[in-house]
């Protein structure tokens, strides 16, 4: 499946990535694990006052921690992020809106 992931950092900075991935089964479970591990490795903090962290929160946190500068110049990392998002969410079009704190698909 072809997936398109758009990451909006602010009104002037966004990245759109197109990747090929086949979600489902073990690949999707591994992608959810990738977000968990990366979220912890980057020292991301919970977005909710309750402290509960959902997959969408992890995607937002990882995108924010990696930042526009790193993702715009490190194509390998940006492609990895986009591929993992498509696999984890099993959706062909994903928008990670950091100012709005929304992951839409």
Keywords:
single chain; 105 residues; four-stranded mixed beta sheet; 3 helices; 49% helix; globular
Concise synopsis of the structure shown:
The protein is α+β, with helices and mostly antiparallel strands. It has three helices and four strands; from the N terminus they run E-E-H-H-H-E-E. A hairpin with a 4-residue loop joins strand 3 and strand 4.
Please tell me about this protein's structure.
The protein contains three helices and four strands; from the N terminus they run ββαααββ. The chain is 49% helix and 21% strand. Strand 1 and strand 2 (14-20) form a beta hairpin. A four-stranded mixed β-sheet has the order 2-1-3-4, covered by helices on one side. The protein is an alpha+beta fold and 105 residues long. It starts with a strand and ends with a strand. Helix 1 (25-41) packs across helix 3 (75-89). It has helices spanning 25-41, 55-73, 75-89; strands at 2-8, 14-20, 93-97, 102-104. The longest helix is centred in the middle third of the chain and has 19 residues, at 55-73. The mean pLDDT is 95.
List the helices and strands and how they pair.
Layout: E1 2-8, E2 14-20, H1 25-41, H2 55-73, H3 75-89, E3 93-97, E4 102-104
Parallel strand pairs: 1-3
Antiparallel strand pairs: 1-2, 3-4
Helix pairs in contact: 1-2, 1-3, 2-3
- Low-confidence stretches are none
Q: State the oligomer.
A: single chain
Q: State the strand order across the main sheet.
A: 2-1-3-4
Helical fraction equals: 40-55%
Radius of gyration: 13 Å
Secondary-structure-based class equals alpha+beta
For the secondary structure, the number of strands is 4
**End-to-end distance, in Å?**
15 Å
- The fraction of residues in strands falls at 15-25%
Main sheet specs: 4 strands, mixed
What is the tally of helical segments?
A: 3
Quick one: overall form? globular
**Kindly state the mean pLDDT as a whole number?**
95
